[in-house]
Amino acid sequence: MRLPFAKATTMDLSHLDASRLLFGFTAAYHFLFVPVTIGLMALIAVFEGWALFTGRPALRIAARFLAWPFLLHFACGVLTGYPLRHQIELHWSGYAAVVQQVVGTVFAFEGAVAPWLFALVAMFALGWHLKPVWHWLVSTALAVVLIVQSGAILMINAWMQLPVGATFDGHRARVDHLWDLAGNPLLIPKVLHTVGGAWVLGGFLGVSISAWFLLRQRHVDIAGPSLRAAAAFTLAALLLTGIAGHWSGERLATHQPAKFAAIEALWESDPDGNPLLLFALPDQAARRNRFEVGLPGVLDWVAHAEPGELRGLRSLADETGRTLRQALDDAPASRLGPTTLFGSSCCATRPGEAEIDHVARQALPPVATVFWSFRVMLLAWGAMVCLVAAVLWRPPGPRLLTACVWAVPLPWVAIEAGWLVCEAGRQPWTITGVLATRASLGHVSAAEVGSHLLLALVTGALLLAVHVALNLAHVRRGLRPAPARSCGTRQNAPRPSLQHLSRTP
Q1: Burial call 397-436: b when 16+ CB within 10 Å, e when fewer
Q2: What was the pLDDT predicted at 347?
Q3: 327 and 372 fall within a common domain
Q4: With contact defined as beta carbons under 8 Å apart, do 47 and 223 qualify?
Q5: Pick from 124, 1, 25: which is nearest to 458 by CA?
Q6: Is 3 within the bounds of a domain?
Q7: Structural domain of residue 283, as residue ranges?
Q8: Does 223 lie in the same domain as 117?
Q9: Same domain, 235 and 151
Q10: Does 172 lie in the same domain as 52?
Q11: N or C: which end of the chain has fewer CB within 10 A?
Q12: Residues 384 and 346 in one domain
């Protein structure tokens, strides 16, 4: 028999799912461009500094070649960022009303940084006639400002994951200063992991472009050094990302146990030690794994947890039920807190026990999505480590170069999968424990949301087509040699061949 509240829930979900799909697509699409700008600018700054240090122009020429992809991705990142703010105000007005002051504080800081950012971008784009050392300083400053700006935005995300540093007046969240958000225990590993992932993307893009030139025996004297330098940069970024990711996982086990349990498909904690699952088929309805393959007892060791410390999803759902009952007894009409899991209209009458149990069971992340997204991210990370390590280990042959070219989507796959783990793992909360996603919606109809999604898909496809075409045309056009005097080098330096790349400094 259908429960009395089930029909209303189904009707709400059509609107909720449409809004989430629209925002998820827009955010993921925006994230195709932003990490590239952070990663490419860091790589360009490293290339320019390396050229200055060694006194050889090859990497400066490669850096100038990468300037055009950076500018294209920067422009697309700016263009695709504005729809996100518009959607928050229109489609998620319930959320916007709660976080207006918190988000406004961060956006005010971002607005103060923006003039410096755009000024540095203009100087970077137009200042290649400057002395190499001055342009390198501009590139380095721009790379730092991009990290600062992204760190400010990540403050909001970390706060949504773990809302500390703010006060709630019953209807809204408030912070006295931006630094109130900086003490979030999730923030530093999140920034390191996100920025490291962006550096991986920029570095691997440099590896793939250099490999493409080498396969075609074009610009070998430039592509050889840039391939190895980009591979070294990428490997360092991959190691940083792995360390920061492990650090984030330890923090999740403490501060976001439901997300951690979903990542590991951990339904019931074993006091004798939990397995680290390599493969599983999570069944959310039955609250178990239909099939699993794992390493016994390894999960506790990886998470640095004592036996029995990690909590399973069944236990967490039961705790949510107890929390809901307590919240309904203490503040049944509260607009914030656990009762928002019932929706924005809660609670004219106290929900029945069956409804409370149902909502508590639904208050878990989509386990299969989170579990497999995390493993896709790990597989992509491992594949990139193997490729760049192989490039650095020995002279790259045609097969390895071909693999580097065709593997160019891997960093995007890893980043988008990691983003899905982060955001889907927080569900069903917009602000963990404070505001549920169902209570964050605006008053736009599902049909209107659908039309906005269709418009976003068409516009995004057109923009992506133009963007890819311009980048491919730039790569096919090739490098423009810089004057040899720019780095004080010898003009008659020998031209290395593909077989001698390993000896190219």
Answers
A1: eeebbebbbebbebbbbbbbbbbbbbbbbbbbbbbbebbb
A2: 60
A3: no
A4: no
A5: 25
A6: no
A7: 276-362
A8: yes
A9: yes
A10: yes
A11: N
A12: no
Q: What is the pLDDT of residue 128?
A: 87
Are residues 295 and 205 both part of a single domain? no
Residue 489, pLDDT above cutoff 50: no
Whether 295 and 407 map to the same domain: the answer is no
At 233-250, the pLDDT tens digits run: 999 999 999 999 989 888
Reply yes or no on whether the pLDDT at 13 is more than 60.
no
Max avg pLDDT among 4-8, 139-143, 214-218, 313-317: 139-143
How many CB atoms neighbour CB 495 within 10 A?
Answer: 10
Average pLDDT for the chain: 84
Residue partners of 252: CB distance under 8 A and separation at least 6: 186, 259, 260, 263
Half-sphere exposure of residue 27, counting CA atoms within 13 Å on the CB side?
Answer: 19
CB 171 within 8 A of CB 98: yes
d(CA 21, CA 396): 42
Range of lowest pLDDT (287-291, 366-370, 381-385): 287-291
Q: Please check whether residue 87 lies inside any domain of the structure.
A: yes
Query: What is the Cα–Cα distance from 52 to 486, expressed in whole angstroms?
Result: 9
Number of domains in the chain: 2
Q: Is residue 230 part of a domain?
A: yes
For the chain, the C-alpha Rg in angstroms (whole number) is 25
CA dihedral sign of residues 380, 385, 388, 389? negative
Would you call 402 helix, strand, or coil by DSSP?
helix
> Do 242 and 152 belong together in one domain?
yes
397 found inside a domain? yes
